[in-house]
Description:
Blueprint: H1 2-21, H2 27-38, H3 44-71, H4 82-97, H5 103-117, H6 121-138, H7 140-149, H8 152-159, H9 161-174
Helix pairs in contact: 1-2, 1-3, 1-4, 1-5, 2-3, 3-4, 4-5, 4-6, 5-6, 6-7
Amino acid sequence: MGKYRKIAREISFRTLYTYDFRKDEDIYDLLEEVIKNVRSSLHPRIIDYSYKILGSYEENKETVDEIIKKHLERWRLERLGYPERAFLRLGTTELLFSDIDDKGRVFIDILDLAKCYIGIPESLRFINGVLSSIYKNEKPEASQNIINNIDIEKFIEENFKEDNNLEKDDENSDNR
């Protein structure tokens, strides 16, 4: 089920991203559009879980945005990039409004997807920091083990090794 959920999270992210541009359209119509553009045939579990995530978001979208705003420091939700906003909405929805047991997997999948779609370590730190704050403060009894087990710096170091080597090469060539 884990791989299905990760794909469903990606589809949900893409739908939330699109929804930010096209708020006057039905979120489920946008989901269908994303599904058609992603692959010709997706496992029904992926589609079902995508509907579940977006249904939870649709039911709670005002609350989701208010919670995110409460945990942003020196930022306004409207000023965030579209991908960051979509990942925060996706993460908040799953962490607070879903019955999924493996909340740590939610963090890991979102960071992994953010790496693919955004690719900037600072954005990953930002997304992780906001989601960690939300989960820690909104679900304190459940969050401690998960928050402590996610080492964002280690994740970034492992996932951006090539980028770090390129930066070092650039620095060395500047010094010559």
